[in-house]
Design the sequence.
């Protein structure tokens, strides 16, 4: 089935013919349901009003990705909005995962955005609670948090499957989206994390992307519990990975980015590489190794590569890891004409 | 008060037992309360509830109490007011991402729930907060709901 589709799949953004049992008409869901190892990545959102900044970053990622995450003011820093990025990406034929964080919008705004996104051709939505405003450069902002990630999942699932808003009011055309969430197996309370994951699945999560994984034994423990609970059969799990640019960056991430856990051994290994250039190369090597290791864990269905300000390496890392198994890149040939015309 | 809040979670089993009896008592008092009039009672009961639960649990008077599903740790003390579990930003020492000096209310909730008999209620999916109920008495609401469902005496 997927092989047949592959020939037609020159454009990951175009809606595919509907398939029974699929929620969306997007590529990511199709790749996962076909049992292939999926690859997603994150587009570093520009601090700019120029669409070329989005397209330049998307073109290097799309070569190896089944979908590209459009982040929603991650770290509570203002950037181009996820809705805006998705508008550009869908227009140019890319397949985005639109992230929605509950920090900045209430339920009225969010449900409206979901409809708008689906109308633009967004096939995947990732539901997040969002980092606290104190993480960002405008900590004096009012935090909204009207919903949390789980009530957001349930809200969008209700819209999609029952064709109703949270109020019960009917929709004339429901948003056919593949629903995702984030999980962090690397933060306390560790015993509760699999149960929390189960809650997200019960609320409607069909795929999850994890926080950065630098501690494979901890992930394995989490996954063992996940398998016991049968969650890997109900939800696709994409493990978050990323290259560390240097030991200094790793230390900074560990202390400043909420929920990132990097063991000392990992930082020591990068540091031992020596010169900045060598540390960077070691960071990439480590990332490739991590992808290969997590791939062997039963119940892991893909990776989510987060290469903050290092997007140019994503393609190289994915290709070197061998996870694509000969699947070809799917850069849209008429991308640049497309973006010029808009 | 933060220290009392931590103490209450450490004694979640006691509070679970206490609440079961307390709830039975005020549900049983339903007919009397109805005679006095719920609207007339709302303000004084809310004042008592705010002070008692404020002291014990740092209650924020959301008006739709779910303490028994959250290990007796009030989720409205979470800076993100998460009612379904912790965010991914919990620090390695179990403290809050936003307020590093505070234990994560959901780390507390998980510990409290393990002490309770009905602790597995932590897996129940909670709907978003109804902002109209903020500041009102959750106790009176329970009595009214019992009456409506016909479970009251």
Sequence:
């Amino acid at each position: 089935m997927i092989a047949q589709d592959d020939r037609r799949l020159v454009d990951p953004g175009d809606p595919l013919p509907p398939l029974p049992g699929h929620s969306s008409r997007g590529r990511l869901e199709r790749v996962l349901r076909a049992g292939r190892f999926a690859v997603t990545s994150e587009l570093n959102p520009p601090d700019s009003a120029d669409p070329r900044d989005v397209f330049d970053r998307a073109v290097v990622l799309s070569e190896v990705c089944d979908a590209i995450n459009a982040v929603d003011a991650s770290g509570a820093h203002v950037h181009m909005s996820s809705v805006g990025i998705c508008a550009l990406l869908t227009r140019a034929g890319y397949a985005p995962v639109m992230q929605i964080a509950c920090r900045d919008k209430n339920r009225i705004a969010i449900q409206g955005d979901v409809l708008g996104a689906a109308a633009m051709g967004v096939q995947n939505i990732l539901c997040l609670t969002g980092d606290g405003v104190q993480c960002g450069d405008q900590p004096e902002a009012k935090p909204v948090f009207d919903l949390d990630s789980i009530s957001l999942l349930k809200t969008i699932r209700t819209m999609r499957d029952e064709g109703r808003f949270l109020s019960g009011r009917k929709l004339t055309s429901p948003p056919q989206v593949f629903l995702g969430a984030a999980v962090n197996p690397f933060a306390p309370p560790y015993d509760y994390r699999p149960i929390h994951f189960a809650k997200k699945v019960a609320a409607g999560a069909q795929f999850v992307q994890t926080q950065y994984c630098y501690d494979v034994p901890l992930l394995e423990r989490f996954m063992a519990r996940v398998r016991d609970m049968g969650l890997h059969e109900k939800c696709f799990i994409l493990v978050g990975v990323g290259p560390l640019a240097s030991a200094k960056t790793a230390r900074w991430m560990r202390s400043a980015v909420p929920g990132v856990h990097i063991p000392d051994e990992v930082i020591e290994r990068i540091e031992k590489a020596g010169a900045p250039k060598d540390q960077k190369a070691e960071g990439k090597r480590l990332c490739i190794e991590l992808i290969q290791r997590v791939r062997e864990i039963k119940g892991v269905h893909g990776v989510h590569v987060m290469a903050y300000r290092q997007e140019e390496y994503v393609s190289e890392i994915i290709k070197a890891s061998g996870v694509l198994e000969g699947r070809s890149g799917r850069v849209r040939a008429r991308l640049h004409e497309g973006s010029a015309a808009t | 008060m933060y220290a009392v809040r931590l103490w209450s979670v450490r004694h979640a089993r006691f509070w679970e037992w206490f609440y079961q009896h307390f709830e039975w008592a005020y549900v049983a008092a339903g007919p009397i309360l109805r005679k006095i009039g719920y609207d007339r009672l709302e303000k004084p009961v809310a004042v008592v509830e705010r002070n008692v639960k404020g002291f014990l649990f740092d209650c924020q008077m959301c008006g739709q109490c779910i303490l028994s599903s959250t290990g007796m740790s009030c989720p409205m003390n979470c800076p993100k007011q998460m009612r379904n579990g912790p965010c991914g930003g919990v620090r390695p020492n179990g403290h809050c991402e936003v307020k590093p000096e505070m234990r994560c209310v959901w780390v507390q909730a998980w510990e409290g729930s393990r002490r309770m008999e009905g602790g597995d209620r932590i897996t129940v999916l909670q709907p978003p907060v109804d902002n109209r109920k903020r500041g009102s008495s959750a106790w009176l609401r329970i009595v009214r709901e019992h009456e409506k469902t016909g479970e009251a005496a």
